[in-house]
Design goal:
It is a single chain. This protein is 68% helix and 0% strand. By secondary structure, it is mainly alpha-helical. It folds into two domains: 3-68, 434 Repressor (Amino-terminal Domain) (Orthogonal Bundle), CATH 1.10.260; 85-117, no CATH class. Keywords: DNA-binding. Residues 14-67 form the HTH cro/C1-type domain. This is Transcriptional repressor. One of its GO terms (cellular component) is cytosol.
């Protein structure tokens, strides 16, 4: 586990939660996870799954960049020009944009479909 990333996510989540005046239990309930799991996330003891991270962004009214500690001044590492990752980037962005607009049930269905496609 990347401890620095886990601490960053936890710290940003705690700050956003307190700014909204919510308790850990309230946020955990909205995320559909156990209170103890959310507590571990805030303390940087574990990393959230991608679907949980996206739900955290929605519930805490915070962007994924803010949650992950990416400021506008940081340069994002990109694959070399012409690599497979570079050509996939627009589709990945499109998929993420669509996923952010989905409710929890549709997001779960999307994850299930993606897992089936990877088999």
């Amino acid at each position: 586990m990347n401890e620095e990333l886990a601490n960053q996510i936890g710290s940003a989540a705690r700050e956003a939660r307190t700014h909204l005046g919510l308790t850990q239990a309230e946020v955990a309930g909205k995320l559909g996870i156990a209170h103890m799991v959310y507590s571990r996330l805030e303390r940087g003891k574990m990393l959230p799954s991608v679907p949980t991270l996206l739900r955290m962004c929605s519930v805490l009214h915070i962007s994924a960049d803010e949650l992950l500690g990416n400021s506008g001044t940081q340069e994002v590492s990109r694959p070399a020009h012409g690599s497979r990752g570079q050509s996939e980037l627009p589709q990945v962005r499109q998929l993420l944009g669509l996923a952010r607009k989905m409710d929890e049930d549709k997001l779960h269905a999307l994850v299930t479909v993606a897992q089936v496609l990877l088999r």
